[in-house]
Structure prediction request, 433 residues.
Amino acid sequence: MDETHLKLSDRTLVTGFILCTKILKAQKSSAKTTEDFRLIRDLEVKIRDLYRKLYNRSMPAKQLDEELEEWINFLISSVNNAYLGERSLFIKEVTSQLNEAKGNIKCLRCAKNVKTEICDDTQKDFTKIMEGGECLSIFNELFETTCSKALVYYSKFFPEVNFNKMLVITFATRPIADPPHRRNLALYLNGRTEYFDNESRAKAVIFLELYLKDFNWESFLSIPYILFHEVFIHAFDSVLPAGLTREAYTDQTSVFLDGWMDYVALMILKDEVDDCPFMETYNFITKANNEFFTHGKRLYLALENCDDPEEGSFAPERYKAHQAANRIEALFKKHFSKSDYNQGKEMFLDISFGLNVNSKYIKLRDNLVAVFEALFLTGSSKSFEFEREEMLNIFGNYLNNQSLDQLVHDAFEIEKKIVDEAKFSSPPKVWDR
Prediction:
């Protein structure tokens, strides 16, 4: 089982960078003078330079807390050297916050808490970190919050299923050798889910893959979207009925998983990000349009227009699936707007989660998305009202009988009827799974 984490020197590199940048971003929000802004800007440049210097180091890493303390001392020294005279209250506050951060991570304290030795870059480190390692606590906090949110959603729509008992989701990190190719987007990370199921329990390992050479603050801000995508979609993919074994990993893309459900994941992130516990820690970047959601959406949109050879050919299909999901959700909301606006949204999520979690729809759901694309993205404006009414009839029936089987059957029947009436020049594209 290839559950791993970044080696100690890499954890030092990334954690030190995030912690120090976080302090500067927080102080930047309270800066008032040109001198204050210049100080923060200069320190951000120094952090970036220090990151590159440490990335290229040849010496072995020290304990993470010792090296983190060196990071902070370097920054404080930079402040002192730049402002030898009388310093403002703002500058004093910056140095005070940096000094306080020295105690954020302590390897000895961490080892004591998990009752083991300090990490030594062996496989045992994974267990230590999983049981409460401070060096990746920033990532673990985001991951655990995401899992908690996903469990709430799936348990709401499937109250009869004990997901805690039947599904284990763990978190891992690893470096990647090459940067992702995303047009005009400097985000240097990926997400991937691998399965280690057995007859008694399903297990999904969520890997956060970092291109360490160019990892930046914007990449960090994109992590919640990546985790929401991997956990809400892939971790729960086809876990029902219990006892089945999923393929360990497949590179095959799916318009349902990577298009339709990707839209669902971003929608939930938008709804939940302000309510997540980790937002209290990062409230300095909470604005009208939250930074976590903003950077997540940037990546979401970039994947619709992707230069990566492995994903680029799929980008147009991802875009169409995003649009189809958006149209169906809007249809639900419009239908229920006079009675209960949220009921339409709940219905959309109920259907989406049902198709995602139940393995019997694996061979149907990509084709179902293709049908929805044909109905809502390629139909003529004259036929739209007819198609809308037909679809509303289907969804109305679903409200009464809660049968996904019937909904899928009825949707394909509409597609056949419309093709027979020559409303489209050709039937929708069908994906073989």
About this structure: The longest helix spans residues 34-55. The chain has two domains: 8-113, 139-420. The longest strand covers residues 167-175.
